[in-house]
Design goal:
Layout lengths: L4 E5 L3 H12 L3 E5 L11 E4 L2 E4 L5 E2 L2 H9 L4 H4 L2 E3 L2 E6 L5 E5 L2 H12 L3 H23 L6 H4 L2 H8 L10 H8 L3 H8 L19 H8 L1 E4 L4 H13 L3 E3 L6 E5 L2 E7 L2 E4 L2 E4 L3 H8 L9 H4 L6 E9 L9 E4 L4 H9 L10 E4 L14 E9 L7 H20 L7 E7 L1 H8 L16 H4 L11 E3 L10 H15 L1
Parallel strand pairs: 1-2, 1-14, 2-10, 7-16, 14-20
Antiparallel strand pairs: 3-4, 5-9, 6-9, 7-8, 11-12, 12-13, 15-18, 15-19, 16-17, 17-18
Helix pairs in contact: 1-11, 1-18, 4-5, 5-7, 5-10, 8-9
The chain binds flavin-adenine dinucleotide.
Amino acid sequence: MPVKKALIIGAGIAGIATAIRLAVKGYQVNVFEANSYPGGKLSEFEQEGFRFDAGPSLFTMPQYVDELFRLAGKNPAEFSSYQKLDVVCRYFYEDGTRLNAYADPEKFAAEINQQTGEPEASVKKYLKNSSNIYSITSHVFLEQSLHRLKTYLNWGTVQSVFRFPQIDAFRSVHKANESFFKDERITQLYDRYATYNGSNPYSAPATLNVIPHLEQHYGAYFPEGGMYSIVTSLVKLAESLGVVFHYNSPVDEIILEKQTAKAIRIKDDVMLGDVIVSNMDVWFTYHRLLKDHPRLFPKKILKQERSSSALIFYWGINKQFAGLHLHNIFFSADYRAEFDHIWQQKAIYHDPTVYLNISSKYKPDDAPQSCENWFTMINVPANTGQNWDKLIVAARQHILTKLSRILGQDIGSLIISESILDPRSIESKTSSYQGSLYGTSSNNQFAAFLRHANKASQIKNLYFCGGSVHPGGGIPLCLLSAKIVSDWIA
Ligand SMILES: Cc1cc2nc3c(=O)[nH]c(=O)nc-3n(C[C@H](O)[C@H](O)[C@H](O)COP(=O)(O)OP(=O)(O)OC[C@H]3O[C@@H](n4cnc5c(N)ncnc54)[C@H](O)[C@@H]3O)c2cc1C
């Protein structure tokens, strides 16, 4: 039998993982990437002696990365190593409360009780609920396609369906969290997890309360070489399996013959493939690469609300802060107002919740001596044409005022190097429609079913992986999309 050829559009984390899986299955795989580097949103850059991971900074579920090495018959430890974090995050509240989110659930419950008075039992009950939702949903919603009959003819799915009332899909994340906790600070802490897939805790279904389980039970990690080392080690693995990466190769068209995807075109070059997988945002795949076939567009799906985006300031800071950890959150005093601004007004609140990631805490050579590399991020709406230049100037000032007040230092005067990423640049650098971080939002209870499938319904031989399709955004889910799509193809 001749070797089958797979063409993958995009070398984001899901594109790379799909390439590995298909190569293991015996495909000859070529990956075409528009940028000069692999990784898409998961990239890195240097700036005046500071190194920054440009996108993701929180690494959970490393087992999905390790699985790729094992599939290829390799020992993951020879390629990469990750350190489990004891303190996952340090929280700062405007009322002066400080909290360490310990990885150990007992210790975390005790810390919450000590700092806020919330009973330890409430935290434990909450985490049990989170684990229960995971046990019902992971098998159905995360590890399989929702668009194949096979999924529903499976005993595990049937068992999960009987337990669906327990997944809490009909009230919001916030409503559910309020019912677990007396203390508003703890409700706010757990509401924040809805932002892990770019959603609004005041409207997203409480099923998303599964997310704390992933972090608390499986842990959060720091890859030894920084987040980007996940990409470099996987590309190395893919290349060892014969995958060929073509950089600076933006695909212009997917060529169809009678509703079957036959080839891709880059400028005047046409490459034939037995199967084509797009890791490019599904919205742009249709609107750019299939623009001559609008009748084949899944119109309803493409009209869905996008997830939120981000505004990031990469600051080289001329000082080290002993009271800060790898991950830090400075909460807004009024969380509801903050989300109303993002989702209703499509604007930025004057007191945003600030996420501060400092990789030099774990990897000192990411910053010059006595300095730190601050990845300072706030959630913002997706790009629908706002006046970003104006919004960025105001947000920068608000963030600096907030951090300076809480840390007791004039932070602005410590910045010795700066660059900015906003929804427009996220869109242009990674072709993510409206600069959304996680594809479509999960702001309603049917979102999981409305996300685009891993296969085109109207075009044969065209498949999809990555954050804009099932099961959704974030590194772990993107890696699962690669698994689902390669199993489907095979
Ligand atoms: C600022 C930020 C913070 C985040 N934080 C986290 C976090 O802490 N933890 C987490 O798990 N996730 C986080 N995420 C989300 C995570 O980064 C994404 O869900 C994930 O990396 C998306 O991977 P993907 O496979 O969908 O591909 P993408 O990263 O979207 O890459 C798609 C690739 O396709 C290429 N491409 C597009 N069009 C073409 C074309 N025509 N031809 C060829 N190539 C093309 C692009 O250049 C790009 O390289 C964050 C994202 C951002 C931006």
